Amino acid sequence: MSLVDRIAVARGDIPASLVLRNARLVNVLSGEIDTTDIVVYGDTIVAVGEGYSAETEIDLGGRYVCPGFIDAHVHIESSLCTPPEFSRVVLAHGVTTVVTDPHEIANVLGLEGIRFMLERAKHGPINMYVMASSCVPATHMETSGARLEAEDLEPLLRSDWVLGLAEMMNYPGVIYGDEGVLDKLEMYRTKVLDGHAPSVAGKQLQAYIASGIGSDHECTTVEEAHEKLRLGLTIFIREGTTTRNLKPLLPLVTPMNHTRLCFCTDDRQPDSLLNEGSIDFMVRTAISEGIDPMLAIRMGTINTANYFRLYRHGAIAPGRVADMVVFSDLHNLQPEMVFRAGVLSAQNGEVLREKPAQRKIDLRDSMNVRIDESDFRIPADAAGHIHVIEAYGDQVVTGHVMMDAKVENGEAVSDTERDLVKMVVLERHRASGKVGKGFITGFGLKRGALAGTVAHDHHNLVIIGVDDASIRNAAKAVRTMGGGLVAIDEHGQVMARLPLPVAGLMSEEPLADVKRQYDALIAAAQTLGSTLPDPFMTMSFMALEVIPKLKLTDAGLVDVEKFALVDLFV
């Protein structure tokens, strides 16, 4: 498909590969919707207009066509599947391009993990661009399986599929000039620099943005987003499984500022992906909440393409990649046909492309954990106040509350009557035996334990359990299956399990099968008393010490607002 031939097709001298006739084109460049033909040669749109012939012609009968959707920021690992299966699911929902930060697997396996994700993305059904993971580990207050310094990230600069530096979560390191953090920013200064600055405001926010960082996806209020928008950040409005920020932030959107707004999913579990969708779900929701359809579609397409300098994506016009979504109802956008690089690749929710053959990639074992020698007891001479993590079911931020400890036989223990349950984080990368111990409220667990190796961002073994025996049994069950998620009853019986053999984070099974196992885990957790809609997703963020306010890592309790470790007892 030479450039000479492409231009000749555009002149009308030779036939095109494909013409979509009678299309109502959603033109995100001009803001118009016109009935026209869309002319494709190979993987590229070469013309918009009538009078062209083609080898294949499809009469759309007045259906709408918009550009393929683009996810501005996603951690594919949160789907619990590897890139090929994730790609097939989101393609059916009209997503043809994603920008992913593989820092979950990078925190476990370092560059080996990033290269695994790039290899698994090859020849896949969607465009998968990568941002180089900037914070491995996220902070010094955790033990990860790898450490990536600026010199480790330098080779990724030469990849066409690496667009820049991923979310800079170590915002104190930026604000106060940490040498290692600044080295990474300086190395990637000509690329796209993504941000992560939850609740950062005032002069600290000014300092953070002065570093050259260009985006933020952590806004939870319109006021926070307005301040960041005014200071030059592009705002990624997020709608994950737990991080439901879309509706609260939609009042931010106006015709004057919407070009600086993009949509992202960040972390979506199997149920959300299969039953709701991805960026298409965000576009539908925004429109149903009163946002003009053109603005909503722009935030899911051209705005993201422009931010990431993907100038051949995000619009339907000559010279652009032929990634397109066909649908019938502008106010209830349901993808009916999805074209990827000029090929009809999904129709009515079914992917038409065959799965590419996958080369076997051997990854080193990521379950190096000492359990039998670990002590989960919390000595307490007398009852006293303790710092407690307060979990919310619909956010990854947590509260930081003080509660009276329940003391039995000289130990602080769970008190299910007050919804006070023990939580531990056991280091699983280096077999150091390090264990962080604390308590959580808002989880509702009455008996048994939940455990998993999905624990952002270090992905150590996190366990929430009513008693130490259940905690130990749950930890052993996860180790036995080589990483994954498990629910254990008070007798040590496994009620539900989901093996995640790829770095303790992902399965290579079909997403529908993973969803069935995950649904069984949620049901088991709720049988054990949990009141949360998705206890495992919530649990996975309770160890992330870059999201306010109180978290627990293998190093201990972290007061995120002070960016320091604190004792359990006040």
Detailed description of the structure:
The protein has 17 helices and 30 strands. The protein has 570 residues and is α/β, with parallel strands linked by helices. The longest helix has 17 residues, at 511-527.
Strand content: 25-35%
Q: How would you characterize the largest beta sheet?
A: 9 strands, mixed
Shape category: elongated
Low-confidence stretches: none
Distance between the termini: 69 Å
Secondary-structure content class: alpha/beta
Instruction: Please provide the count of β strands.
Output: 30
Q: What is the C-alpha radius of gyration, as a whole number of Å? A: 24 Å
Question: Could you tell me the mean pLDDT?
Answer: 95
Count the helices. How many?
17
Structure described in brief:
With 570 residues, the chain is α/β, with parallel strands linked by helices. Helices cover 25% and strands 27% of the residues.
Which helices and strands occur, and which strands form pairs?
Layout: H1 3-11, E1 16-27, E2 32-41, E3 44-48, E4 54-59, E5 64-67, E6 69-74, H2 83-92, E7 95-100, H3 103-109, H4 111-121, E8 127-132, H5 150-153, E9 162-168, H6 171-175, H7 179-187, E10 192-195, H8 202-210, E11 215-216, H9 222-230, E12 234-238, H10 246-249, E13 261-264, H11 270-275, H12 279-288, H13 293-299, H14 302-307, E14 324-327, E15 337-340, E16 343-347, E17 350-351, E18 385-390, E19 399-404, E20 406-408, E21 411-413, E22 420-426, E23 435-441, E24 449-452, E25 461-465, H15 468-480, E26 484-488, E27 494-499, H16 511-527, H17 535-540, E28 550-553, E29 556-559, E30 564-566
Parallel strand pairs: 1-4, 1-5, 6-7, 7-8, 8-9, 9-10, 11-12, 12-13, 18-23
Antiparallel strand pairs: 1-2, 2-3, 5-14, 14-15, 15-16, 16-17, 18-19, 20-21, 22-23, 22-25, 24-25, 24-26, 26-27, 28-29, 29-30
Helix pairs in contact: 3-4, 12-13
